[in-house]
Amino acid sequence: MSLTVVLAAGLDKSLLTNQSSAWQSAGYLVTFAGSIKEAISLFRDGDFDLVLLGNSIPADSRERLAFLIRASGSQIPVVCVADSSGDSDAFADATIKSEPIKLLEGIGEVMAKRPKGPVASRGMSGIATRGGRIAS
Fold first, then answer.
1. Which helix (H) or strand (E) segment is 132 a member of?
2. How far is CA 9 from CA 36, 45, 119, 135, in A?
3. What is the C-alpha separation between 134 and 136, in angstroms, rounded?
4. How far is the C-alpha of 2 from the C-alpha of 102, rounded, in Å?
5. 64: buried, middle or exposed (CB in 10 Å: 19+, 13-18, 0-12)?
6. Residue (of 34, 28, 43) closest to 105 by Cα position
């Protein structure tokens, strides 16, 4: 089984690292970023299948990161973890509840709908971040 490589960004890494064995047994290899700045760096240098943005990151910063990913030409899915209000993030491909089973199911659904082929290329080499301030 091939692992799905996920970049998970959140200010509270413990929420995702505590579930790392569940992620791995479900076929996901997760790299954690503790800030938007770190997420940008990892995404720029990495090769990911999906970006997961935790609700501990302010909505405007999640939106900026999603914008940067799209501006790079990447069609990698961007998924946000729902906050307590359950509101959806309009800029994300999906907003999923934080319960582990719901999160894994939702990500599976997003990955099943993901475009295949070179258009869905990963990474964002060449993206400039000077145009807008990214909160760390």
1. none
2. 7, 15, 24, 13
3. 6
4. 21
5. buried
6. 28
Closest CA relative to residue 32, chosen from 49, 53, 47: 53
User: Which domains, ranges and CATH numbers included, belong to the chain?
Assistant: 4-120 (3.40.50.2300)
Q: Would you say residue 95 has pLDDT above 80?
A: yes
Q: How confident is the model at residue 49 (pLDDT cuts 50, 70, 90)?
A: very high
Length of the chain: 136
Region at 126 (left for phi over 0; alpha for psi -120 to 50; beta for the rest): left
C-alpha torsion angle, residues 39, 74, 123, 40 (rounded to 10)? -20
**54 pLDDT tier (thresholds 50, 70, 90):** confident
Residues in CB range of 83: below 8 A, 6 or more apart: 55
Structure tokens at 5: 């490589």
